[in-house]
Amino acid sequence: MTLRQRIVPYLLLLPALVLLLVFNLLPTIATLVESTFVISLRSGERVFAGFANFERIFNDPIFWKSLQVTVVFSLVVNPLQIALSLGLSMLMNQRLPGIGIFRSIYLLPVAVSLNVTAIVWRLLLDKNTGMVNGILHQLGIERQPFLHSPEQALWSIILIASWIGVPLWSLFILAGLQNIPPPVLEAAKIDGANAWQSFTRVTLPLLRRVLAFVLVADTVANFLLFAPILLTTQGGPQLSTNLILYETYRRGFLYGDLGASAAMLSVMLLFVFVIVGVELYVLRGSD
Amino acid sequence: MNAHVTRLARRNRKPLRAYLLPALVYCLLIIGVLIVVVPLMWAAAASFTPNHKVFEYAYPFSWRALLPVDFTLEAYDNIFARGFGRSISNTFFLAFATVIIGGAANALAGFAFGRFEFRGKNALFMIIVMLTFLVPVDLTAIPRYILINNFGWINTWQGLLVPGLANSLVIFLFRQFFAEIPQELIDAARVDGASWLRVLWSIVLPISKPVLVAAGLLMFISQWNSFFWPLLVAPRQELRVVQVAISLAVEQHRTRWNELLAGSMIAALVPILLVMPFQRYYVQAITGTGLE
């Protein structure tokens, strides 16, 4: 091969690669670097501060509260969304007349943005005149405060995130279900497996790869939930929905404390590494 | 007689179960559909309702809440009078530019990964995979903002467009598709002395409709729905995109509910209209990237 031949693939890669390096890799490194700088109050200059930003956020009760809210949120929303997605995908996988129409309808939330979802649900969950309270009223249940109460706000956010999340992740699981060759399930039936046995012993193991991907992607997506918070509770009431990405935005953009914001983002990066690593390891371990 | 009844019962038992399961499936599916559709129906109906009547049938709830019984275009007139049309054309422009420029860059990269063997291929591919899955773009938005600021690109089209052009999920899609093209097709053209760009343009492109539609939809819709980045980088009104416009309205026009919903319905309608005719492609585009 001539030299000209050999550089062809690199030339083809060049535009995308340069863009990815400049706008994705560079900011990642910059986040880590920025976390070690502070803006000096006296001179207004950026000065190296070692781990001062980290010390600051680790001594900050608001950061810990935000982390706590994020952990509670993640521990509820991820298993919930994956269980419901698995159920929905099993339903959509049934060979029944009209199933295509159902699949189309469940695609609607996937196409709609999180912002639209948040705006609509904010009004649906209005504590005085929202439709959800309207329906509860018809059922003889008294009004609920939803987004306005520290006890219910996080649950309301979970509802909003799941309205998109469940149909979205069920698409992946449905694709996985459709990849299971029917003879495999028929063989299990002939061997005398009941529906539950063929689900737990045949279907679930064959879905392991898809479920691993969904678990990782869902965890990361929910860890980074932002728009619904900005558009509904802005972290409140009483910081009960102050998820971590919203807290970094508040620090960095609303209060201009870029050092603390970068330190939090670095902690989050570490979290994503660990979460993804652990989940992949655990799921691979069952091979 | 008894034997006859038992036989009948036995014969009937199977059909009954055979009906029961589908009935249960349909019931559950319909409950899900209500959860999906009722919010959208209310939002659509309320966007065509005078503002003071938006909640009229929502609390206490009646079926009228789901239909525009007091039909008016007031909300749509108002948002367009305040410049929502500009946001729509901005977003269309941005999304098309992303599809065309970004599509080209991602397709070339996908072609390199799918069809060539070269030194450093696996390492480069791993870097892209790691970047995609371990460093979500929203996490690095603030340093990216500082970078764009250093370029002097705040409140410019470049600032909105360029950082989102390279999309590793789209590169994966193209790579997967190109890797499956039969080698003979490409060899034939290469023997005839065609350059690689020529091969791409006149041999590969014409047979790539499925991946082009899938990748195009993915890029268009993710740009149409993008929010965090445009919010940070282009707050100026002339560059405002749809998602930012509807979100700022939540702050600024808190109680003009019908207008919030009218903007939201337009923001929702465009991706829905694009996805519905191309469902198969879109589903493949989203799920294909996760199933490798």
Residue share in helix of chain A:
over 70%
Query: Number of domains in the coordinates of chain A?
Result: 1
> How is the biggest beta sheet of chain B arranged?
none
Segments of chain A where pLDDT lies below 50 for 5+ residues? none
**For the largest beta sheet of chain A, what order do the strands appear in spatially?**
1-2
Class by helix and strand content of chain B? mainly alpha
- In what range is the share of β-strand residues of chain B? under 5%
Could you please say which CATH topology of the largest domain in chain B applies here?
Answer: MetI-like fold
Query: What is the CA-based Rg of chain B, rounded?
Result: 26 Å
CATH homologous superfamily label of chain A: MetI-like
Description:
The complex is a heterodimer of chains A (287) and B (292). Chain A is mainly α and 287 residues long. Chain A has one domain: MetI-like fold, CATH 1.10.3720.10. Chain A has helices spanning 3-34, 52-58, 61-92, 99-111, 114-124, 131-138, 153-178, 182-190, 195-206, 208-223, 227-231, 244-254, 258-285; strands spanning 37-39, 46-48. In chain A, helix 3 (61-92) packs antiparallel against helix 10. Chain B is mostly helical and 292 residues long. Chain B has two domains: 2-72, no CATH class; 76-288, MetI-like fold (Orthogonal Bundle), CATH 1.10.3720. Chain B contains 14 helices and no strands. The interface between A and B is large, with 91 and 88 residues.
